[in-house]
TrEMBL record:
The chain crosses the membrane at residues 45-68, 89-117, 123-144, 156-174, 194-220, 240-261, 335-356, 362-382, 402-421. Keywords: Membrane, Transmembrane, Transmembrane helix. It is a multi-pass membrane protein. Signal peptide: none annotated. This is Mn2+ and Fe2+ transporters of the NRAMP family. It comes from Zobellia uliginosa. It is found in: Membrane. It comes from the Bacteria. Its main location: membrane.
């Protein structure tokens, strides 16, 4: 019994030591898809939205797992794998990253700026100015602190967030469902509006599939200062982060469902108004005393998501340019990461200024693109882990391959159905 206990403790120590890429994945994922879309799913459509949330998490799992598997076995980034499959793979992924550059970061920073304005009650300051301050502050943190600072700080933030959200969800369940309005009629899910929302929800649940290469890059960065773990240890560390994102999505869904479903309250597309609504619904069942606690937790959620996404898109953009255009000689340039972070900040500030406080269009565009390309990126990742670079023993088992094909088929058919209702 004592030996078994020591074995468990030893395994836990190894897991905690390896925590990093999977934790950053969780921090990055617990943002718009959770705070915004999962809450809205419960508020508008109720408990039935458990099904698409779980389906998205299950069917997309192999796409992300393959990024961890490929990098651990080969020591290469996932984008290097795309290049090894052919330049068409690399440039297609580059196009997806370009779209992400103009949509994902801008949407994240817009929501975060709205939460900041709500938290400090500074509605007289425009959202684009708050976003500019956030761009500057986060850029400085990333350039000076680099990967190590991000990993250490997010271990603390994600742990506190999980505890706070677990407690909030428990209190909401204890209080019970909100009283629905008389003659409430549940909205139709499979109409144009419902399908568009499902596209948004599943496109970013748990996060965009192209983020599979982000985890790959974080792994390579971590191993520069720490010995590379075994494949099983890397997969275990990633699963901790992945399962956490799935669980938190259900927490947010529960809160939205039990506090708003049946009231016909429509969550605003304006970032500042939405921020106030989201904090108010969290505190409705708990009491006014919890307002500041929930507001800070919500802001910390989105702030950490902005930081991880900003870091990841900068890294992957540089990686794509290094591989696709070796004549640029970016490799070995210590300043190139700082330049990438600053360029991303400037570009996305222009996007935020153009869209102002209306984040709805940004989120819809970003999630639509993510949903449509998900099965293609999933297939590209499968090609990487089934290539000759991966020994037979380290390739995914038959069950995981079947799940991959099922995910590709499911997401492809859903995309075709979406195009059908839009065109016809």
């Amino acid at each position: 019994m004592y030996i078994l206990f020591l074995t468990k403790v030893s395994k836990l120590r190894v897991l905690l030591k390896n925590l990093g890429p999977g934790l950053l994945f969780a921090s990055m994922a617990i943002g718009t898809s959770h705070l915004v879309l999962s809450t809205k799913a419960g508020a508008q459509y109720g408990w039935v939205m458990v099904i698409p949330i779980l389906l998205a998490n299950v069917f997309k799992y192999p796409f992300f797992e393959f990024g961890v598997r490929y990098t651990n076995v080969t020591g290469k980034t996932l984008t290097e794998g795309y290049l090894n499959r052919g330049k068409t793979y690399l440039w297609f992924y580059g196009f997806i990253t370009l779209v992400s550059t103009f949509t994902i970061l801008a949407a994240l920073y817009t929501v975060t700026a709205g939460l900041f304005i709500n938290l400090l009650k500074v509605s007289h300051i425009s959202i684009d100015r708050v976003a500019l301050a956030l761009f500057c502050f986060i850029s400085i943190l990333l350039i000076i602190g680099k990967y190590r600072f991000m990993e250490v700080s997010l271990k603390f933030i994600v742990s506190l967030l999980f505890i706070a959200l677990l407690a909030t969800t428990a209190v909401v369940i204890f209080k019970g469902n909100v009283e629905p309005i008389p003659d409430f009629t549940p909205p139709t899910l499979f109409d144009n509006v419902g399908i568009l929302f499902l596209i948004s929800l599943m496109g970013w649940m748990p996060t965009t599939v192209e983020a599979s290469s982000w985890v790959s890059l974080w792994s390579v960065e971590k191993w520069k200062t720490q010995a590379k773990p075994s494949l099983s240890e890397s997969l275990q560390e990633f699963r901790v982060g992945y399962y956490t994102t799935c669980l938190l999505a259900l927490f947010f869904l529960t809160i939205g469902c039990m506090t708003l479903y049946g009231t016909q309250t429509e969550l605003s597309g304006n970032a500042v108004t939405f921020a106030d609504q989201i904090v108010q619904l969290f505190t409705a069942h708990i009491g006014p005393w919890a307002y500041i606690l929930i507001a800070v937790a919500a802001f910390a959620t989105m702030f950490s998501t902005c930081m991880t996404a900003h870091d990841a898109i900068a890294r992957v953009s540089i990686d794509i340019l290094e591989l696709g255009l070796p004549r640029l000689k970016l490799s070995g340039n210590k300043r190139i990461f700082a330049v990438g972070v600053i360029v991303l900040a400037l570009v996305n500030y222009i996007v935020v200024s153009s869209f102002s406080a209306n984040m709805g269009q940004l989120v819809s565009l970003a999630t639509f693109v993510s949903f449509v390309v998900a099965p293609i990126v999933g297939y590209m990742n499968l090609k990487n882990v089934m290539s000759d670079e991966i020994p037979q023993a380290n390739r995914p088992k038959r069950g995981l391959r079947i799940l991959t094909y099922a995910g590709i088929l499911f997401l492809s058919l859903f995309s075709v159905y979406y195009f059908y209702i839009v065109v016809f």
